[in-house]
Amino acid sequence: MEALSVKNVTKRYTSHVALDNVSLTIPEKSIYGLLGPNGAGKTTLIRIINQIINAEEGEVFIFGEKLKEDHVGIIGYLPEERGLYKKLKVGEQLLYLAQLKGMSRSRAVEQSKKWLKKFQITDWWDKKVEDLSKGMAQKVQFISTVMHEPRLIILDEPFSGFDPVNAQLITQEILSLRDNGSTIIFSTHRMETVEDLCDHIALINKSKKIIEGPKKQIKDQYKSNTFIVEHKGNHLQLSSDRYQIVRQETLEDGHYVTTIKANNDIRANQVIRELIDKTELQSFREKIPSMADIFIDLVKGEDDEALRKHLQEAV
Amino acid sequence: MNKIWLIIQREFLNRVQKKSFLITTILVPLIFPAIIGGMIYYMVQEAELAKPDTVQVVDESGKFSFEDSKRFIYTKVNVPLEQAKKAYNETEDFALLYIPQFDINNPVGLTLYTKENPSIEKIGNLEGNLAERIRELKLEQYKVDEETLEALKTSVSLKQVSLSETGEEKSSSSGLLYGVGFVLGILIYMFVLIYGIQIMQGVIDEKTSKIVEVIVSSVKPFQLMMGKIIGIASVGLLQFTIWILIITFVSSSMLAYFGLKMPQEQMREQITKQMSSPEAQEAVASQNTEVVEFLGMLNEVNFAKIAAVFIFFFLGGYLLYGALFAAVGSAVDSIQESQQFQFPITLPLLIGYMSLFFVILRDPHGPMSFWLSIIPLTSPVAMVGRIAFGVPTWELALSMILLVGGFILTTWTAGRIYRIGILMTGTKVNYKVLAKWFMTKN
């Protein structure tokens, strides 16, 4: 079943269109990366899912049901601009936020104690938030996002401002939440997060969805039939116009790293066959594009296209 | 609904559990009596300790003879003015009073020479003494003796009876009604202002601490706004109740300390006296009628009705303005920025407050008073100011309906601004932007 299905959602503001006919399908128990440059419309989409604002057109379904007010309890949301009540004690804060999500007080006490224990910060219960360091407050924010056991967790730039230790800790918790059955949506423009954690991806640029699917599939789609070869002995010379040497680096003792782009109809085995007679092969692998490459390619492509269009119109 | 209740609880506890709540709740009712008490004490002390000032008098008219008082010691100087001035300058004395020959019907030319500018109070005292003496001279001139004059004095006190629509008679006292209107009007003004600003502060805090987006992903912005308004109202009601209790307690114990007995007690004593000595009955009775009449008037004033109307307008006014303060808080990022938007809100409140003194309590049934107590923005202060004087039922009903309508309208308007404003940080906001937010679809 799909955890979330966004169908043809459009949101206009007076001056611009924030989301233009966007549809997404987020499978259950996935870690879904919502990518896009700043101002692309990610936050608008997330706010629509959280029912903070309403879509003008289109519908959102959560676990098969049309989104309605009761659903706030099964969503956990960590906004990019996040904070806590400064004057409130950590314990009170967690209880209040969980109760607002519809949890009973006794269950909220149980859960908040469990999470404080898990992060080994039980003695913070009576501390005021204003007395916590930034890193400490981030932990409390994370707990408040997940302690009501949401089935869908939405994290908007979760690692911005996290120190590496905390980031590691949170990453681990996110994975274990997924293993326990939660679905997680990441909104980010940090590619390393996507590379490490996400299994599904959607890219939004300028209010429109550009691409969506399992990460592996997208990467396969954007492979350029390029191979990286480590070899020894001599400079590589390829006579055929079916291959093209993109670059060649010389390492010490006559070792080389060569990047070869083959025509689309050529398989890896054929490339190896071609190379075997010409040099002493040490390693051979296909170059898989990183998400960052794909992201930049796509976003730049869009921009270029827009620029071209603009120029044409001008002429 | 359950969530609004949670918010109300939280807002209430957040404030009540603070130390500052405890401190202000206890100190505020003590501060004013302390200041007033301190000032009176100081003034009494000063008056008692002050040495009398010496005034040299050059009396060319020969009409005056001064008696030394606590304040002034007079020394006659029998030399011409110019000489006296020189002599005065070499002394430490307070002043030199010059009285030329003058017509008692037109006393001009009396002059006071001093080294420093004297206080109005001292001048007033001296002038009073001189006027008193001239009056005596006039009495002599017109051949009127003191006794005749005393007999001429007549005091008339109108017994006020208001006829109600049904023809019932009620005695009333404008002074008493004035006092009631005055106190109640000020209470509402203060309550709305103090707690309205707390609402605004609370909204700004939520916005700047960035907690608000998490909250509105759980509850509707309107629920959050109403929860806050109601939560703070309950803090205010609690605080006001405590203040009234403390003030009542402190003032009654102060009265007891200074040996002033409560009117009831006095009456009881007088009644017992009456019983024991029948001769004194008449004298005491005449004294008593005033007290009895006053107490009677207290009974005639419909306190239950006034209290009910007061509570209605108290809450209505607070809710009307509370939502507006919340909207202002949502539009800005700091309390400093809020000034420009606060002004149009506090203005009608201030108009209500000022008109309480200049219009409503002076002429509670005039057309200005009518309109001020009907228009929802000024009606909370204006209507409670008028209510004790008796307001026709239809006017009261109209005012109440309009207040409820006004409250719904401001809350709706404010809610529309609030829902957008709380998520907008770092935007330059002006009235045009507010209008845009208001028009934005959900």
Describe the protein.
The complex is a heterodimer of chains A (315) and B (442). Chain A has 315 residues and is of the alpha/beta class. In chain A, 35% of the residues lie in helices and 30% in strands. In chain A, the strands form three sheets. In chain A, strands 6-7-8-3-9-10 form a six-stranded mixed beta sheet, sandwiched between helices. In chain A, helix 2 packs across helix 3 (105-118). In chain A, 36% of the residues are buried. Chain B is an alpha/beta fold and 442 residues long. Among the domains of chain B are: 51-144, Periplasmic binding protein-like II (D-Maltodextrin-Binding Protein, domain 2), CATH 3.40.190; 174-242 and 294-439, no CATH class. In chain B, 68% of the residues lie in helices and 7% in strands. Chain B has helices at residues 2-16, 19-49, 81-89, 120-142, 146-152, 174-208, 212-216, 221-257, 263-276, 281-300, 303-331, 339-360, 367-374, 379-387, 393-421, 431-439; strands at 53-59, 72-76, 95-99, 111-114, 160-163, 169-172. In chain B, strand 5 and strand 6 (169-172) form a beta hairpin. The A-B interface holds A 13-14, 47, 50-54, 56, 69, 72, 75, 77-79, 81-88, 96-97, 99-101, 144 and B 3, 6-7, 10, 14, 18, 205-206, 209-211, 213-220, 423, 425, 436, 440-442.
